[in-house]
Amino acid sequence: MVTTCMHTLSTGVELECRTSGQPGQPLLLFLHGFPEGAFIWDALLKEFGSSYRCVAPNLRGYGKSSQPTAISDYRAKHLVEDLAALIAIEGAGNAACVIAHDWGGAVAWGLANRYPAQVQRLLILNSPHPGAFLRELQKNPQQQAASQYMHFLRRPDAPELLAENDWSRMLSFIQHSDGSLPDWLTPERQQQYREHWSLGVHGACMFYAASPLVPPRPGASEDELQDIRGLSLPEEMLHIPVPVRILWGDSDLALHPALLDGLEQWVPRLQVEHLKGC
Question: Nearest 5°: phi and psi at 21?
Fold first, then answer.
């Protein structure tokens, strides 16, 4: 059975969590991306709750979790500290596995780097390692083009624009490339998403506004190009000492498979499985 609880963290943030299993069982932590919510993991929480303590939070800025208003409140450091504090409450010291998609994966990479003792292993679903993402945004025209949507989500009026026409723009983020909606996105599920987004999407957009990893615009000035070309990440922020398995849908419109190239330099204990047509 999946239940809901609210955890007040040592960071001062409250995270609304969907949970299954008993406290004291090995912890599985499930992290959603944009424009999702904790409810997307319910089937897996039901599947694994007999053997694990399963916890899926609405990340800071989503649902009924805390939604700070300042861009600085969504810097990677704070998002990672939220997860470390949540594991300390739920996991008796560490998580047996962190399962993370999209933005949840971006935070999970940081968690495994900064708090490796709290993560036994990491399972990443289509979320680029920060070193690879920076490299591709600097050098790969395909990835630069695929990431242009980030500029829209960084706009101050993005939350209002996303809510127009009964959230039609938001639904477009999870439709097929031909514009059709996937079979699993039933009218009932669409309504669940709309109710989730209606609680606020300002925080969700702040994840993009706070990130320094932004593609150059087409025809960008030399100064704008230098913003991304001159950016570097300290090598100590990129090393992931825990075992990592990546499941990568190769048909992702926003993230190209080239993001997997060269990961071994940062992730020595790595397994990658490509999912064709996904």
Answer: 80, 175
